[in-house]
Amino acid sequence: MKHISFSVLIGALFLLASCSNGDEVDNKSFENAQLSIRLTDAPANYDEILIDIREVRVHFAGKGEEGGWQTLSGINAGVYNLLDYTNGADTLIAEHEFPAGIISQIRLLLGENNRIKKDGVYYDIMTPSAQQSGLKLKVHADLTRGVAYRLWLDFDAGRSIVEKGNGSYSLKPVIRVFTEAASGAIQGVITPVEARPYIHAVSAQKDTFSTYADGETGFFMIKALPKGSYKVEFNTTAGYQAKSIKDVEVETSRVTDMGSIVIEKIMQ
């Protein structure tokens, strides 16, 4: 049975689209928001609570009950011991990019390896509906393009495990869902589009986040920026003057619009 240890998964922190060596950010996905789904738990009177997570799906509001579901591709499937993630600890179970919109539901599909350990003895947990239709959770996560979000599934393990009269156990999950925006973004439009600069947002700590302006519209967006003040540099193609703008402020969960950025031609 595959176990996912806390020491391994805690290193898989949510990835911001950032780099210190100027790697390019793909501007084609500027319409998307980034979402990471994390697992945490409240303490419970068991030695272990092992939950086998196989698949995560999300549902977008306004898409219809059947048509609005999307399966996340970037999932860390495996068996999680919920009691590894108590008292503020958590772990990443999935991350994905989505178009901006409102996520109304999340569905967890479980595998067959769900068990508890009590007084040194393992017991299977009955989860029939979770393996067929999944654990369906109501949420209201309003995703803004260019912004990175974290969403937590907070199990109440003590209330979720039900001991039956015959000594068996079943899962009737009590899960609280909450979200937090983790970043902001910068956007603008380059004029003329022919200047097509390589654009860098440089933080006070000298971290660099980069992208190109769109070749047809001049639009650019630098996503997943930590809150702070940035110098935005525009390194242009031949024949156009480079430009920089200081003190561009980024706030969490907001997109800072720089408006139209005019790039001057070099006069011969």
From TrEMBL:
* Keyword Signal recorded: yes
Recorded hits in InterPro entries, A to Z, give: Carb-bd-like_fold, DUF4382
Q: Which domain of life is it from?
A: Bacteria
Keywords linked to the UniProt accession: Signal
The residues the entry assigns to the signal sequence are 1-22
The DUF4382 domain extends over: 33-173
Bilayer-spanning residue ranges: none
Single GO MF descriptor: carbohydrate binding
Q: What is this protein called?
A: DUF4382 domain-containing protein
> To which species is this protein native?
Saccharicrinis carchari
